[in-house]
Every structure is written in structure tokens, then in C-alpha cells.
């Protein structure tokens, strides 16, 4: 690896925090973003601070990943304080569960804006630097919902399926510059997002949807991420981290 600055959007908890920690253990300096949960951000900062070396730096940036001006400002801060970004993980996302006929236009737009447009806003900030470095890794955290529709709602499924189109197009355009662009489609990650607060009873229902004898963890997603980080000949793919849920 020829550069060592990474951005993880939504890196203050759940899957994003575990990926951020992996990058830290590999020597990266990091920026992690979040929307507004200060407590999680402080906890994440304390945790990561205790695990970094003296020459590594961590920035915690508050603001909406679905707002292009905020993303541009965050990128200016990262570039100014840490340097050019070589690894981008578009992980920030919301999962507001609603049925098709219940979703308002505003809710639809907000989910697409944060989950999909936010990934594009970050890509367009970091791509010029990656092209110049002739190196880059972009990993978009999609979802099983992009494949089979999922259970959150059409707004969520559409936002996550859109990420796969963005991934494939960007892989095509950026491949010649040594920049790989891939996606991970997790499912049933029991220590993150909405599932983190579920009772064992509720989780038992999820277990019926997978082949292996347990649910997924953020660690499983981070392992897929590390594979993509280390794989210069893998681009434009989606890694399904779902315990075999497709086969049931
Ligand atoms: N958990 C699963 O089973 C699962 C399955 C498939 C896909 N995914 C996807 O994996 C990604 C991470 O999910 P997770 O379960 O780890 O989520 P999580 O625990 O709910 O964490 C979400 C993170 O994203 C941040 N975030 C939310 N909206 C944001 C916005 N508008 N701007 C900037 N940051 C924002 C949150 O910040 P605040 O704390 O400030 O809100 C938090 O840091 C998401 O894209 C999700 O769709 C998760």
C-alpha cells in the first residue's frame, strides 16, 4: 500500500467503527464521520485513541453525509489535516422501516440522499486525489436488500441497489488509474444498527434465514473489507456477507 489516509463515513459505531479499527491496526490515519450522536462519537474516539500509535491521527467529523456542501467541507478538513485519501468506505446509512404505501416523498428522498447520494458526494471528492496517486480503494456498504428487496422498504432497497450501479460504473472508469471500487452486501449483522437492540427471541427468527449456525457480526463485514483492501485485481464486485441467506 502506497498511502495511508482513510475515510469511513458513519464510523462511530456498528460496522463502520470495526472497519475503522482495522484500518487503524494497519497503520492508517483516519477520519470517521457521523450525523449527530455525540455520545457514540466520544466513545469511538476514546476507543480508537487507545489503539493508535503516536504517529497516527484520527479526526471525528460531525455532519450529514447526504449534504454535498458538508461532504466538501469534511473533505477539505481531511485533506488539509491528514493528506490525500487513499481509502474511502461509504458506510453511513439509515434504515427507516416502512411499507411502500406509507413512505412519504420526503422519507423516500432522505433515504436515497443519505444512503446513495452521500456515497457519490464522497467519491467525487476523493477520486481526483486517487487518480493522481494512481492508487485507491473505494468500498461501498450496500445490503442484501439490494439483491432480494429485503424487509426495510423500497426506499432502502432502491438506495442500496443504486450503490451497486455506482460501484460498477466507478470501477469501470477508475480501474485504469489503479483505483478499485467494490461493494459489500451484508445481512443480519447482529451487533450493529437496528439488530443490536433486538432480544434473543427476535434474533431467533433471523437465524432461520441463514444456513450457518449463527448471525453475522461487524467483524464478518470487516473481514470482507480487508480482502477488498488487499486485492488490486478485484474490482466492480459485490461481496455477499449473509451466512448463505440467498440459498434459503
Ligand atoms: N446492521 C446490519 O445488519 C446491516 C445489514 C446490511 C447493511 N447494513 C448497512 O451497513 C451500514 C452501517 O450500518 P450499521 O448497522 O453499522 O449502522 P449503525 O450502527 O446504525 O451506524 C450508522 C452510522 O452511520 C452514521 N450516519 C447515519 N446517518 C448519517 C448521515 N446522514 N450522515 C453521516 N453519518 C450518518 C451514524 O451516525 P450517528 O451515530 O450520528 O447517527 C453512525 O455512525 C449502513 O449503510 C447499513 O445500511 C447494515
Question: SSE layout and pairings?
Answer:
Layout lengths: L4 E4 L5 H12 L3 E6 L3 H12 L8 E5 L5 H14 L5 E4 L14 H29 L2 E6 L3 H4 L5 H21 L4 E8 L13 H8 L10 H12 L8 E4 L7
Parallel strand pairs: 1-2, 1-4, 2-3, 4-5, 5-6, 6-7
Count structural domains.
1
The averaged pLDDT comes out at: 97
Question: Which superfamily, in CATH terms, is the homologous superfamily?
Answer: NAD(P)-binding Rossmann-like Domain
Through-space gap between termini: 39 Å
Examine the coordinates and then state which fold CATH places here, giving the name of the CATH topology: Rossmann fold
Level-1 CATH class name = Alpha Beta
Q: Residue ranges: pLDDT <50 for 5 or more in a row?
A: none
Assembly level = single chain
Bound molecules: NADP nicotinamide-adenine-dinucleotide phosphate
Largest sheet: 7 strands, parallel
Spatial shape: globular
Give me the side-by-side strand order of the main sheet: 3-2-1-4-5-6-7
Structural class, by secondary structure, is alpha/beta
% residues in beta strands: 5-15%
CATH architecture designation:
3-Layer(aba) Sandwich
Number of strands: 7
Rg calculated over all Cα atoms: 17 Å
Number of helices: 8
Order of helices and strands: EHEHEHEHEHHEHHE
Helix content: 40-55%
